[in-house]
User: Fold this.
Amino acid sequence: MAMSQEVEGPGLDAPLDEGAAVAPAAALYRALGEPTRLLIVQHLFSGEHRVRELTEHLGLAQSTVSAHLACLRDCGLVTSRVHGRASMFSLVDPERLVSLFAVTEGLLEATGSAAALCTHLGPQERARLEDER
Ligand SMILES: [Zn+2]
Assistant:
């Protein structure tokens, strides 16, 4: 047993790429940060759905649902399987998503839902921040 083996990895004086460190989480939040995608994810808690079913249950255009499902699948949040002539979509990890949404509700309570009123998150600010990237 190597009890005194040194821990591998960057030392304290190694440059920390903070942008790279938060990028995966930022991408995940971006996937969930679009209202229609959030709606689709929440609806999939009720079980597996075909695109056509999601289209009907959510009152959205099929092209809209398909595009968001493709995003969610690329992000690893949603998976699909072929069933007959259709694809069935479901959540990859509903338990963790339930936990995430529970924590989110707690945060919304704690912040007095300030995020909903925050002008920094408005469409104009968002467009400006997108331009800066
Ligand atoms: Zn449904």
